[in-house]
Amino acid sequence: MAMDIIIASFDSISEVNMDYTITMYLHQYWTDERLSWSSSVPIDEMTLSGEFSQNIWVPDTFLANDKQSYLHEVTERNKMLRISGDGKIAYGMRLTSTLSCSMNLRNFPLDAQNCTVEIESYGYTTSEVLMKWNHPKAVHGVEQAYVPQFTITGYQTEDRVVSTATGSYQRLSLVFQLQRSVGYFIFQTYLPCVLIVMLSWVSFWINHEATSARVALGITTVLTMTTISTGVRQSLPRISYVKSIDVYLVMCFVFVFAALLEYAAVNYSYWGRRARGGGEEGYVSSFIIGTSPDTFYSDPTFLLFRTRRRLRMTKMRAASMTTSLHRMGKRARKALPSIRVRDVNVIDKYSRIVFPICFVIFNIFYWGYYSLIQL
């Protein structure tokens, strides 16, 4: 018994359910000499409705990896039976079937999958029915088929004998070689992740004293990365191994979280230094906050500080004119903030270079590694 298939369409492929849906025309050919007629009859062949198949022998073909199938019935039941004068029979039907497809998603979404159509006789063993592909062209319509998010790179037909508890059966396999199209995921996942990571670097250019702005930006980028990761996980089955897209999402999350921690280091460096090195003014300021007026003005430390301050003011008035002091004060006020920013923001200065370089290096290794795997 020979067999061929015409692919009408690929309807869907589901990673969550590990299956795909296909609509096809299944044709089977065999010879039954009991249905032949004399050459004197001026008819070469007869085409009958599919219902006539209940009156003759037909193979008990089924799809071994089928989950759910149905025959189309618009406008009539889509089955055909054609009998030739020499007893040759062509039996065809149009059906839509959801077939299981075991997928290895380790390289998702830079992966390739093989999905099969497994055809087998349900009850007849190899000693009773021999099945084969109707070569040289057993499969049609693959070149015209369109698969969402995939490209059909090729197909091949196989036949083998499978052994079960009830006997050995002939099985015909049609293997579709599918390459996933990464363009959808570039715009839906990868590009947003890159932009979020780059957005987290903006905090390196924000003044370290703008605490609310930098913390809000850091938390926003972290939460956005979490939302993207959650959306990707919901579209995939719950599998234990690490996928390619998991690696990228985790690394992007690390970069975003590291940018938030970088500000914590900058903030601690600035305020920690001020707390440790306040000098006499720092001591007096803290003393003022926690001391009553009577105790404060009689404290020896305050009296010593006031005496030293008066001496400095006397020397300054004697050494320079009022206009000179004014100019020096303006220069000091301009120089002090620049010195402080330059001293504290050294971490920001290096982060502006280190973070982008590390992210570019990661992308080079990531895309290079998974591109080599596809070869």
Features:
single chain, 375 residues, alpha+beta, Acetylcholine Binding Protein, Chain: A, Methane Monooxygenase Hydroxylase, Chain G, domain 1, 2 domains, eight-stranded mixed β-sheet, four-stranded antiparallel β-sheet, 8 helices, 12 strands, 44% helix, rod-shaped
CATH class of the largest domain: Mainly Beta
Overall domain count? 2
Uncertain stretches: 279-284, 286-291, 338-344
Distance between the termini: 39 Å
The gross shape turns out to be rod-shaped
Number of strands: 12
Total of DSSP H or I helical runs spanning 4+ residues: 8
Gyration radius over CA: 40 Å
Which structural category fits the helices and strands?
alpha+beta
Strand/helix succession? EEEEEEEEEEEEHHHHHHHH
Q: Give the biggest sheet.
A: 8 strands, mixed
Helix content: 40-55%
- What is the percentage of strand-forming residues? 25-35%
Kindly report the CATH topology of the largest domain.
Acetylcholine Binding Protein, Chain: A
CATH architecture verdict of the largest domain: Distorted Sandwich
Average pLDDT confidence is: 85
- CATH H-level superfamily of the largest domain: Neurotransmitter-gated ion-channel ligand-binding domain
Domain Neurotransmitter-gated ion-channel transmembrane: 189-273, 339-367
GO molecular function, one term: extracellular ligand-gated monoatomic ion channel activity
Main location: membrane
Keywords: Cell membrane, Chloride, Chloride channel, Disulfide bond, Glycoprotein, Ion channel, Ion transport, Ligand-gated ion channel, Membrane, Postsynaptic cell membrane, Receptor, Signal, Synapse, Transmembrane, Transmembrane helix, Transport
